[in-house]
Amino acid sequence: MQLNNDEIRRYSRHLILPEVGLAGQKKIKATSVLCIGAGGLGSPIAMYLAAAGIGKIGIVDFDTVDYSNLQRQILHTDADVGRSKAESAKETLAGINPNCEVVIHNTRISSENALDLIRPYDIVVDGTDNFPTRYLTNDACVLLKKPNVYGSIFRFEGQASVFAPHLGGPCYRCLYPEPPPPGMVPSCAEGGVLGVLPGIIGCIQATEILKLALGKGTSLVGRLQLFNALDMKFRELKLRRDPACPICGDHPTIKELIDYEMFCGILPEPAEPVGNPDEVTVQQMKQALDNPSLNIKVVDVREPDEYEIAHVEGVPLLPLSQLGQRFTELDPNQQYYLHCKAGVRSLKALHFLREQGFKYLKSVKGGIGAWSDEIDHRVPKY
């Protein structure tokens, strides 16, 4: 694989590095990387890989660009809102480096297509934000003997590693044998994330990919890098392969891809929507607010910072995080409608209060997001 004169000029700062040189840059150009996700982590990963001269980048993403993405997903701009993330990513990467081949897979990665998607690529990088896809990516990479460059972020903290049992290290299952219960770990949409954090973790992942392509340096195989942005501290944990791991252990029991939604305890959506008896709609919430004679009180269980961003006039705040200490402020004989951002935390609050003896409780489906969509557009969405 040769470099033309334009590429030699473009990569000149690589070429003068003794650890890279002309031979190393040719290795980078000959490397193909599949980036699963074109969001917060996928953005810096793909952009730096394209700039560095990776020959082929595959982008797997079925989502569209939303305004809430723009705070951290720097592949996309205002003009891309509503567009396919994969298409937007391809356009941005072509502008960074037209020598890089970008192949888009505008689809959801699944047990049915994962092996076919991953097989043609040398390295896989995990830029996802959900547990089923992480376990799926891990298992497919182990079965195909592909390095899995892992990263995850939440609020102000991130972590990164390289899972590669075929190179002597552990896999993701060795670190996390079982997924957390559904809803136990809040998503970035629920808990937030500092906009620059995926840039830091994504750059670590991109660095590991270039080192793997070059065959240089000490990789994160067998190590988990932890980063706390608030303290500006890095910590490192040593990881070892688990001999009893069901996918990469001495006697593996997983020989093919499984149902990862079921493995993570996520039930399939019913063909026909089934109403939850514990839920009410935002229209019913509005009726309760408009008609005091119904004797139904509405309580917001989000956090104070969220309440400051957007709230429904006249609805008091009692954060879920404080409910364990403050539930005695509520009347167990009163009927309450509980609402949050999207309806997840309000259901948690409902179940907690029910355990304390409260009987007349409903959770508002869709939360303040649905209120903004269906009742009052003046209430901002976040």
Proportion of residues in β-strands: 15-25%
Distance between the termini: 48 Å
Q: Label the structural class.
A: alpha/beta
For the residues shown, what is the average pLDDT?
Answer: 95
Indicate the overall shape.
elongated
Would you identify the CATH H-level superfamily of the largest domain? NAD(P)-binding Rossmann-like Domain
Rg (CA only):
24 Å
CATH class of the largest domain reads Alpha Beta
Characterize the biggest β-sheet: 8 strands, mixed
Uncertain ranges: none
Corresponding CATH architecture of the largest domain: 3-Layer(aba) Sandwich
Helix content: 25-40%
Order of helices and strands: HHHEHEHEHEHEEHHHEEHEHEHHEHEH
Number of helices: 16
Description:
This protein has 382 residues and is of the alpha/beta class. It folds into 2 domains: 31-263, Rossmann fold (3-Layer(aba) Sandwich); 279-374, Oxidized Rhodanese, domain 1 (3-Layer(aba) Sandwich), CATH 3.40.250.10. The protein has 16 helices and 12 strands. The chain has helices at residues 5-10, 12-15, 21-30, 42-52, 85-96, 114-118, 131-144, 172-175, 188-191, 197-214, 260-263, 282-290, 304-309, 323-326, 344-355, 367-374; strands at residues 32-36, 56-60, 101-105, 123-126, 148-154, 157-163, 223-228, 233-238, 279-280, 296-300, 335-339, 361-364. Strand 11 (335-339), helix 15 and strand 12 form a beta-alpha-beta unit. The longest helix has 18 residues, at 197-214.
